[in-house]
Amino acid sequence: MANSEYDAIVVGLGAAGSVVTGALSGAGWNVLALEEGPWYSPFRDFHDGRAERIPTGLTYERDSIRPSMVKCVGGSMLFYAGVFFRLHESDFTTRTRSGCGVDWPISYRELEPFYDKVEIFTGASGSSDNVFEVPRGPYPNPPHPVSRGSRYFADGARKLGYHPAPTPMSILSRPYRGRPACTYCAKCGEGCMIGDKSSPEMTYVPAAVNNGAEIRSGHKVLTIETNTAGRVTGVVYSDSEGIRQKAASDLVVLCGSALLNPTLLLRSRGPAHPEGLGARSGMVGRNLMCHTGGRYMARFPEEVNAYMGISGGINVQDFYEGTPDGDFDRGYTLYVSLLPSPPATFVSWYFEQNDWGGKLMDVMGSYNRMIRLAMVGEDQARVENMVYPDPDDTDDEGFPRPRVRYVRPGSEFSRYEHAMAVARKICRAGGADDWELYHISNGSAHPLGTCRMGDNPDTSVVNRWGACHDVPGLYICDGSAFPTSGAVNPALTIMALASRTADRLIARRTG
Asked: Domains along the chain?
């Protein structure tokens, strides 16, 4: 095995890893970023919607969730819809405010400048008039035009006394820093071929390359190495030819996701860490969260062509904090999503829980008149929901594969049912003449937790800066560090946390 030394090694180049790599290399650091997946070019690989996605290697216990994720340079954001919410101020103090979950070790105000920083760098589009968010300055770009379907949804919400607002997006509403505005082709989830979606491969990764960072795709990190004192010394990885290599550094930043970080940590054993890295608290892999999700479909008297545009549209957060009479903790966000397109894709979605024959023909005849609503509901962390190494299932390297154990309690479905009832009322008030629930998601999006952030090393894995409590030189700053999930897409918060950690590392080394 060859040895080489770097100022920092970043493991995983998704939402968090790309931000860290761009920031550290921009400060003049010699950075190595290792990504197991391929390095796609949106302009080369997405033209036919068939970009090959490598297996995640995850296994699941019976009835467990099947979270969606992608291994590649840029991470799952390459194939996400572009929704770019901040967490609410209350999300950081749910134990104090609502008596559930745990309080974060940091406040909204501590993260706010990094929200600003990421939004400016990526060119986020949105409006600052959401009454449920902390008052803030303007977005770098204005909100996207409101589609006809979103307008009907907003009208219905206002009639019921709710407070609809444009959904913030990491998609350009106008040209910005050399990139074009969105063309509303509705292919965000298949990889943006235009360059207007501000996912990492169009923003932080090019910046990191220009800064001189060394990015290696197709390289799988096998273990994080430590010395007899327990301090990080580097990583062992399998290169694109399957040959084991070593890279040396006294700083490793782990950004491999809430689903993959735990098994890497627990198999990285050394003299000072016989049970694995960060294992002292017993919290590595535990407290897995995945947002409660669902889809609702409504039909209007006239065509709305909801298969065009962006997925965010208009959102309603009136029940973000929960309901006084609800039997669930915390709440949810509702927003207008894209209708799956082309129609053949929509048919495959509809088949999941509905009928063939005349019912299907009726639905397809209404395709141009339908809108689809999405719900993101907060998930409560539970120690029994976890990712752990499966000793009975090993990968090609001989290491146990990560196995997911997750059961959603009945209260989570109560939140879901409440959201779908509200969606039905809004659509009816907006003029819909038919509506139908057609997809229940058992937590298939946004895996979070498993390496919780906290001030107490007995109940958390990393501190408020992402530093592992018991492994000097190891940082974790992706979604696995979330103490609570909030009720919005986590991409922006993941990137803001990564930016905050990177600034801390730079300040400590230069100060």
From this structure: 8-510 (3.50.50.60)
